[in-house]
Automatic annotation (TrEMBL):
Residues 294-335 are annotated as: Disordered. InterPro entries: AAA+_ATPase, ABC_transporter-like_ATP-bd, ABC_transporter-like_CS, P-loop_NTPase. CDD domains: ABC_DR_subfamily_A. Pfam families: ABC_tran (PF00005). GO terms for molecular function: ATP binding; ATP hydrolysis activity. Keywords: ATP-binding, Nucleotide-binding. Transmembrane segments: none annotated. This is Multidrug ABC transporter ATP-binding protein. It comes from the Bacteria.
Length: 335
């Protein structure tokens, strides 16, 4: 089967910053793919390119076997989109916004939408403006799924939602993938996506630092605690294929995060002058994320990853440009 999403050296440069730098990405159908990255890492810029709202500086992309730059409408017919702050028409009722959006889709859209909001127990006669953020997210998800898209793109969809709504929202994605559809989830909420994702991509400063199945990613990463007889002793450079991502000084101990570590290397480290002992353990996804986004860091911890500075994301498209296509995008497929 062809990949649902594939990119080749996708690059996006804005004045003063590089949002994406040579991103190569392949996402297979029937999976939940989670793209992790700090605010400003380039996640939303990538989504805008994939949905045809942004022309890349260079490189190419394919979504559901279509070029989003040359065939944007074909892509959007096959994609559902939910953002962290869905742009819905506040003056409409829950039922009216579904009826309005159904005019852009084949028969069956409105019935599927009504079935979805009934499951969420949201009255059809209630105005959008009086809904809570959680209810608005459920409306946006219902609109995005009513045409049964091949690909569902979620851009920080659980931001600001209460824990129960977040759990329901994300767990519904597992069933989506089980039916053969694909979910692309962009987030920096690591603990949430770890429960639902099959494959993880880590984007940092516009570069894809890692992209592989979750179990493979966690299995390839190891934390070493090296005890030293003197804080100035250097830990020996590990032989290939091991790659040191992060090294921190902790007095007479050195914390080293390594990719592709082999247990046989422990004896190599212990044989070095000044090394007293070595302990190893498997890393959590959060630790793996920090290791990739703070590569080369040595010293006391800095601010949390989501607060760190990065490339400025491109602005989202205005709500409507006078055409019918732009209006419907604001309800369920906007990027």
């Amino acid at each position: 089967m062809n990949p649902v999403i594939s990119t080749d050296q996708l690059t996006m440069r804005f004045r003063g910053c590089d949002a994406l730098l040579g991103v190569d990405l392949t996402i297979q159908p029937g999976t939940v793919f989670a793209l992790l990255g700090e605010n400003g890492a380039g996640k939303t810029t990538l989504i805008r390119i994939l949905t045809g709202f942004q022309k890349p500086t260079s490189g190419s992309a394919s979504v559901c076997d279509f070029d989003p730059l040359k065939q944007p409408l074909e892509v959007r017919r096959r994609v559902g989109y939910v953002s962290d702050n869905p742009a819905l028409y506040d003056w409409m009722t829950v039922g009216q916004i579904g009826w309005f959006t159904a005019s852009f889709y084949p028969d069956g859209f409105y019935d599927a939408y009504r079935e979805s909001i009934a499951k969420y127990e949201i009255p059809e006669d209630r105005k959008i403006r009086v809904l809570s953020k959680g209810q608005r997210a459920k409306i946006a998800l219902s609109l995005a799924l009513a045409h049964d898209p091949e690909l569902l793109i979620l851009d920080e969809p659980t931001s600001g939602l209460d824990p129960m709504v977040r759990r329901e929202f994300l767990e519904s994605m597992i069933g989506r993938a089980a039916s053969g559809r694909t979910v692309f989830l962009s987030s920096h909420q690591i603990n949430e996506v770890e429960r639902v994702a099959d494959t993880i991509g880590i984007l940092h400063n516009g570069k894809l630092q890692a992209c592989e199945p979750l179990n493979d990613l966690k299995g390839s990463m190891t934390e070493l605690t090296v005890s030293l007889d003197d804080p100035l002793v250097q830990v020996p450079t590990l032989p290939e294929p091991a790659e040191t991502l992060l090294e921190e000084n902790q007095g007479r101990q050195r914390r080293v995060l390594v990719r592709n570590f082999d247990p046989s290397m422990i004896s190599f480290i212990e044989s070095a002058s000044g090394v007293v002992g070595v302990r190893d353990r498997t890393m959590t996804l959060e630790e793996i994320f920090i290791a990739h986004t703070r590569k080369g860091f040595a010293g006391p911890p800095g601010p949390p990853p989501e607060l760190s500075r990065g490339p400025i994301e491109s602005p989202k498209p205005p709500a409507g440009d006078g055409g019918r296509e732009s209006e419907v995008v604001t309800t369920g497929e906007q990027s």
